Amino acid sequence: MIINKVEICGVNTSKLPVLKEKEMKELLIKTRSGDTKSREKFIKGNLRLILSVIQRFNNRGENADDLFQVGCVGLIKAIDNFDLKQNVKFSTYAVPMIIGEIRRYLRDNNSIRVSRSLRDIAYKALQARDKFIRKNNKEPTISQIAKELDIPREEVVFALDAIQDPVSLFEPIYRDGGDAIYVMDQISDTKNLDENWLQDISIKEAMKKLNDREKLILNLRFFDGRTQMEVAKEIGISQAQVSRLEKTALRHMKKYM
């Protein structure tokens, strides 16, 4: 798969524009009012998001042009559904939409098809698993999940095995009058790379809301691996102050994540 070529679907990727945050907001507002030129400019200004996403699928042997076109569908869906009132960058919202669209394309074009009934059982099993973990703080066994769903253990095993490869974490489970609820919203999976990537984006966005001292303390503590005593010595304050500032900074970050 070649994704570093200049031309993808007739688009010269080396000359794609980069929009500033203020310009993006202005274009989005005009797009909402039906301005087609602003919509086209906004789409072109975010095509680099698609390029960054399709690089994650370079081991699938898929044609870059095909993935780029599918990614454009995801981008347009993100534009149509993005809520300007939310305090979140468009890229943070759009990336999972693009990933989800590409994964659905890969799943639907996979030679292995999973029946709807099997997927329904698998979704229920994942939800039962998440519920069990929240309640008991540990992973349930297959037998416990089967008992919760009141179905044979073999059906649970078969359903979960069937979806392991083709079902995306960004597969929508249902819509309840608003944004879709995705599989990733119902499960806890610290090893999943997509989730970690999105979490990294959220952390970076939340870090921007902190003051310089709070940023320094969190960087030293959690990125450099320093102890509170080491941080206190480096910036010239007491360990108690480091502890207090660290807790305050983490509380502030939670508001934005």
Automatic annotation (TrEMBL):
Q: Which family is annotated?
A: Belongs to the sigma-70 factor family.
One of its Pfam families is: Sigma70_r4
Task: Spell out the CDD domains in the cross-references.
Answer: Sigma70_r4
Q: Which residues form a coiled coil?
A: none
Q: Which UniProt keywords apply?
A: DNA-binding, Sigma factor, Sporulation, Transcription, Transcription regulation
Where in the numbering of this chain does the RNA polymerase sigma-70 domain appear? 66-79, 227-253
Does this UniProt record's set of keywords contain DNA-binding?
Answer: yes
**Superkingdom of the organism of origin:** Bacteria
Q: What is this protein called?
A: RNA polymerase sigma factor
Q: What does this protein do?
A: Sigma factors are initiation factors that promote the attachment of RNA polymerase to specific initiation sites and are then released.
